[in-house]
Write a structure and sequence with these properties.
Layout lengths: L1 H36 L12 H13 L3 H11 L9 H17 L2 H14 L7 H14 L7 H11 L6 H12 L3 H9 L8 H14 L3 H12 L6 H20 L3 H8 L9 H14 L3 H14 L6 H25 L10 H30 L9 H5 L14 H8 L2 H34 L9 H29 L6 H19 L3 H46 L6 H41 L2 H26 L7 H126 L1 H6 L4 H8 L35 H8 L3
Helix pairs in contact: 1-21, 1-26, 2-3, 2-4, 3-4, 4-5, 5-6, 6-7, 6-8, 8-9, 8-10, 9-10, 10-11, 10-12, 11-12, 12-13, 12-14, 13-14, 14-15, 15-16, 16-17, 16-26, 17-19, 17-26, 20-24, 20-26, 21-25, 21-26, 22-25, 23-24, 23-25, 25-26
Amino acid sequence: MNKLAIFAAILFASSIAAADDIGRKLARYEQEAQQLGSQLPQPNQPYGPSAARLVDAEVEYSLGDYDTAALHLFDLAKPTSGSVGADNEAAVYYLAQSLLQKGDRGAARTYFQQIVKANTPGSKYYEPALERLVEIAIASSEPLDSPDTQQVVGALNSAQRAPSVPYVLGKLAFAKGDFDGAQQQFDQVPKGSDYELQAEYYTGTVAVAKKDLARATEIFTDLANRKPRTPNDRRMKELAQLALGRVYYEREEPGKSIDSYVTIDRHSDLFPDALYEVAWVYVKSKQFDKALRALELLEQSDPNTTKSPTTRILEGNLRIRKAQMIRTAQIEGTFNPNEHGDPGTEYDKANKLFTETHDQYMPGYLALTQMVQGSIDPGTFVDQIAGHNTHVFQLAAPIPDAAAQWLRDEPGVQRFVSVEDDIAGMREMIAAAKRDIARIEGAIAAKDHAGLYPELAQRRSRIAAIEDDLVHLRDQLADSQLRLVDGSADLAQLTATRKQLSQQYAGLGNPEQAFAQRVAAAQQGFDKLDDVANDVENTIGSAQAMAVALRKYSNDVQPAMAADQKAQLTQQLDDAAREAQAIEDEIAQVHDEVVLGKDLAAVGDDMHAQAREARRHVREAQDAEQHVLDGFASASHDRGQSQQLVALADRAWRLADDLDKTDATIAASVEQGIAQAQTTIAQEKANVVDYEKQLADYEKEAREIGSTQLGASFKDVQAKFYDIIARTDVGVVDVAWSQKEDSDDDLKRLNLSRARELKQLKDEFHDVLDANVPKPSEKKATTEPEMPKPTDADKAKPEDRIKPGGDDKAGNAQPTVKPDEQKKKGGGR
């Protein structure tokens, strides 16, 4: 009996402790449930208020992400009531600035004009907008005396005259060639302002334009000695140092010019220009070694510049001059043996430079020649020049990189590329919009919409987690109450049903955790598919490289490939290219489907829905059992304990009911948002169709204009390439001619040396030679033999003399053929 009492006491104490623990949990859950149900976010709303979005866009602009800034500002820049408000004006200004930084001057001008027309009193963007309009007019090479520009200038003159206003007006006067007017404006820039150094630099350029190099030297020297306060001041100081080098060069002071150039920091973007120009100063000063070092450093610092061929040709010519100087020093005996150098080595380096430069630009010249002659359509290279190849595998061999780079540097092509960049950006935006629409439609088509809105989905997930714990807590409370009452048959049936459903629900594990694990596993599977697609793309890229090499080989191989073989190879490559492009399109679809699959994986699945349904059935069973148990509390073995358990069970029921209502409210909000989204999607799909039609028209027009511009630029770049190739060929000839002259000079010097040595030998051995040589008279007496006197035997008798033919009385023999007969046979004359 005592043991039973002790066991009952222990059981009672543990029940009290468990009840207290449940009470504390319920208190926390009640507080959290109140937070979950308050201030529910509305679906389909922007990610934040307009002020916060504007700040974000300004941050993106300050970080140099002009594309993202412009994209976010387009919506904010729309006037809400037909006029520009405070936030709208800031959005319009930064949108215009972003577009200007991207190079889209036309669109930027439109938004700046919008600010000027609004002319909001006290606006801090009014004057800056006027200044940007003037700068756009200067940069666009427009007539600077046009009415629009004059109107803007008049507005600036009547404005509050910020420090930047006279600076901008001075730039305008300078661009118009009014140097005196520009100087007057620059003098009005306040000292100590952010535009002081910029105005001073322009003052120096005015002096250069007026041929006052002494005054320009003073201004640039003062500017170069200034202590910069801002990055812009540091930029002005570097420009002044570069300008000083040029001014000193014009003043025939190479030493000071070199000192100015070498002060430019090697991390500056002006450093390549300084190296190139200082190399010419060294050339003018006949310091070829230093010029060569400057050119070699330039090649390393900026290998892709269009100055590269000129630099290499100059380096080759300097190598020739250096070889000649070394050879002259060797001949004169002034060559320093401690210095490394050999004429043959320098000639070889020069020949290598000329040959490599020739080989680098010859393919581009040949390709451009074919285009100029009309054998290749320039329009086929629009995507390559603009850098917008939609497919890795191409149907035609691309333009050599050197030619493409030079084409991009042409002013007309740069404008065309800018237009193509805008079109490509719009095309990508439309494609992204279509992908987003497809993703949204796919998510809407899913059965479970719980995960469509992340913030609401997080609340529903937390509600489900609390409800899952409440199921276990209510089971504990019910079991504790059953131990204190004498049940009935109906109660026993309800309890059995509840336990059976609870056991089934427990077999599902933690539904939210299981769902999260399934989502993670599904997304990992999609990631693996994406990796496989990327591997296929890499394989296609490798095949493209081989195809380009084969096309180049078929065009350049010597002797030329047979026509039928070349046609067959081209056909095979074209077929492979079309097949590869089809694969690329399919891979793009795979990427889109992977993204959609990852989205749908997080939306919900059947098992998640089954778990929610099972939890609902358990709750219904718990509610039914609890309703009956509450009636047995008065007949409990421990009435106080039963009442406490009933109160806790009632709190748990109310908490579950409140969470259910919050979940239903969220679900209704989600469905309402989906209905709004469907309406918006239908409108946006129609807009996308209209945008695609407009873009197709713009793209067609841009392609036609771009092809024409490319055709004209092909001729210009071809002429430049021809000049490079001709100069490299001349360089190779110069090397060979210089070596020939050296060989001829060596031969002449060798002959002269031989003649001098022979003469020296004759002079040294003159006495010996004279002693052994007889006099002419003596030599004749001793050397000429005495003629023998004739004898009678040697005298011929008259009858022994051979008679001439004329002395023969018999005359000549008769001819075999008489002349008359010959004439008869020959037919006469």
